[in-house]
Design brief:
alpha+beta; 2 domains; 2 helices; 27% strand
């Protein structure tokens, strides 16, 4: 005799996860929109701060001030030969309005030998002043 095998298929209605109410969904959407608007406002404020800081003093102006300050620290300032290119790095916090330049300069020492030095200058646009952070031999 043949056996009959019956397969029962049980359909589960509903979900195992609770559904969010319409109010919760709308609140989540509003929170996401608010966060997006805040990020956009922060980005615009950062861009405006950077523009305001960079407009305060022309780059070439304070590069020459930096070079003059470095020359003052040389044994023979008239022999100072600066690299053509200086690298620029902005401070992590642009609200501080600081820019940093690093470069190299060749100058003669007390024995007349030409030595290469590395230096870094920082320009603070809020205070309108330039400082030499370091001047070291390469």
């Amino acid at each position: 005799m043949g056996r009959v095998i019956m397969v029962a298929l049980v359909l589960v209605s509903g979900c195992c996860c609770p559904q969010k109410s319409k109010e919760q969904v709308e609140a989540d959407r509003a929170a996401a929109a608010s966060a997006s608007a805040q990020r956009a406002a922060d980005k615009a404020k950062l861009a405006e701060t950077r523009k305001r800081c960079s407009d305060r003093f022309g780059t070439t102006g304070w590069e020459s001030v930096c070079r003059d300050l470095v020359r003052k620290r040389m044994f023979q300032p008239s022999s100072a030969d600066f690299s053509f290119l200086m690298s620029v790095a902005r401070d992590e916090d642009p609200a501080k309005c600081k820019q940093t330049y690093t470069s190299t300069v060749e100058s003669k020492n007390a024995f007349g030998a030409t030595i290469e030095h590395r230096f870094q200058c920082t320009f603070d646009t809020k205070k309108d002043w330039v400082t030499v952070d370091f001047l070291v031999m390469n």
